[in-house]
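This section describes the prediction task in plain terms. A model, or a person checking by hand, is given the sequence of a single protein chain and must write out its three-dimensional structure as a string of tokens. No templates, partner chains or ligands are provided. The sample shown here is typical of the held-out split.
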Amino acid sequence: MDPWIWAILLLALGAALAVLEVFFPSAGILGFLAAVSTLAAIGMGFWQSPTVGVLILLGALVGLPAAVVWGFQYWPKTAMGRRVLLEAPQSEEVLPDDSSRRQLQDLVGRTGRAKTKMLLSGVVVIDGRSIDAVSESRPIEEGQPIRVLQVRGHGLVVRPIDEEPPPADPLQQTFDDPFDAPPA
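The expected answer:
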């Protein structure tokens, strides 16, 4: 066989090994074999003639990336690709959307009272219903009014209503000058 035929076969082998390296963990062995095969193809092409060598080199520069891109597009459509690659789950499969969660979502913004002392978690009563809850910031005493902030899992995140407002912007606050003592 002519060296240019061997060069084309080695180039095709290198492209196939490069595609396989992307999809099968081989610790770089397939990538190394793809590089050796491609370099051998280029060497055989230049051994035949400089023109064949340049053509094989251009084929490698264009063909290898094209083969990898083609592999990414075609592989998931094959029977083996469907077995190896996982499909992205649909939102219905991931997000819980049962009636109890929807009922909890309706409580966001509503007020109620702590049924138990909440040392970060406990039970609150909203409209006569006892619901598991978690305090957002600090312990909440039994009977203290609360506001529902959000739903987390199958419980509520609450905050005490009588919580002090956040401190004002320190840049807007004014203080008395401790060194400005009134004259004695």
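For orientation: The helical segments are 3-23, 29-48, 50-74, 79-84, 91-94, 99-105.
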